[in-house]
Hints:
Layout: H1 2-22, E1 31-40, E2 44-52, E3 63-72, E4 75-78, E5 82-85, H2 87-96, E6 107-110, E7 117-125, E8 134-142, E9 148-158, E10 180-187, H3 205-220, E11 225-235, H4 242-263, E12 271-276, H5 280-288, H6 295-302, H7 309-323, H8 325-339, E13 342-350, H9 356-365, H10 372-379, H11 387-399, H12 404-417, H13 420-427, H14 434-446, H15 450-462, H16 468-483
Amino acid sequence: MKSPIILSALALAGALQASALNEVKSLQQWDADGARMQREGDNLFSVGFDLDLAGLDVPSEEAILLTPVLQNGLDSLELPAVGIYGRNRYYHYERRGTGMISGDDETVWKNKEKPGHIDYSQVIPYRPWFDGVKLKVKGQCYGCCFQLLGQNEKPLGVFMEPNFPIRPKYVFEPGNAEVTGELSGEARVQFVVDRWELHQDKFGNGPELAKITHSIDTVKNDPDLTVTEVWLKGFASPEATWQHNTMLAKNRVKAVREFVEARYDFDPSVIVTEFQPEDWAGLRKWVAESNIENRDGILAIIDEPVTNPDKDWDAKDRKIGQKYPKQRKFLLNTVYPPLRHTEYKIKYKVRRFLDPEEIRRVMKTEPAKLTLNDFNLAAEGYEPGSPEFNEVYDIMVRIHPDSEIANLNAANAALQSGNLPAAEKYLAKAGSSPEAEYSRGLLKLMQEDYAGAKPAIEAAAANGIEGAAELLDSLNRYLDFLAR
């Protein structure tokens, strides 16, 4: 029955001793604040704070030892201490020749020579348990023979690692995306005046017709391409009447169509023809870019409004001839003949590529044949952030520089590789989709603009972006920590 009484008495004595230790006068005269803790790269950790010694006066027989301590649960680490020694204590330890109280790395000051403030700073190796570590300064007062006269401590702050996973959302094109394209040009196919029979071996028509066939052959000879449309548009020049030129343009483009049909086994629906009775747009372009006399007057006539094509265009040609006969004759002999031409477009589609390895081969040589989704498939075999992964999206955005999807995916790849300037550049053209806003939030997180990141992460969570709600919770906890 005596043991509990003895234990209680010992506990009471210990409590009284602890109270006495904390009541040493000099221990009440120092302070610390302004804690700074930061990860430096992958392997280092910086610790700093302001140590206030302005009110500290250490008696001659005492020494104050101020030791920063990092602690997280059972793990702790003492950093080099600052020792303030009264006169006799200082000379006592100095005569011992074995270092001061805490060892050789202690920063030592005589009481009368100490500064009012010390900007304490240390850089140490980073340890995994530093995430969540608490910083405090332990104060100890020593008397003769290492006797501990009292102690206290000042908590300064907590370090929390801003650990936010960067998992942006890559976007695919909706639907069954396919790549289409066209080869276009102009063939100045000439005809006998007022006739529409096509002479392939006269008037220089051979090389002009070859422009059309070469474009068709370029598409047909590529096993990845299929011709979907051969579009032909015939033009006549402004002399004669609008009605007469309508007949000429219509029959002349028909003759070119028959030329194509005779050489290729196209379904009739593939060849599409249009006609323009008079190429006034071509005439205006030539006049505007020339130094022809009375240029502005001729342009003014060309630009007069047209309400009745059958009459107004004919009236314009007559008016030019009446007001500027010399220039009209020059235009008729020099400029009008090239206006009798055929525009063409050979439209095609690219076959689908299903094998990722084949997609990667095509990406190296003819990336314009790939859909945006093909690039995503090519990237799936690579580690995000790797050079191979980044190359896929570098090529993708180079081929499709104005595509919001390509810019978003390129920005995401840049985020995962840590290239923040590139990510910011691409995000400027990535549109306003929930996925793009989420990536903008991730960019701000990586730029350590945590408050600025919050609205974008909140919007992504509200739009159901996977992982955004969890990231928002982590961000809110970190913002609360920073506020504390």
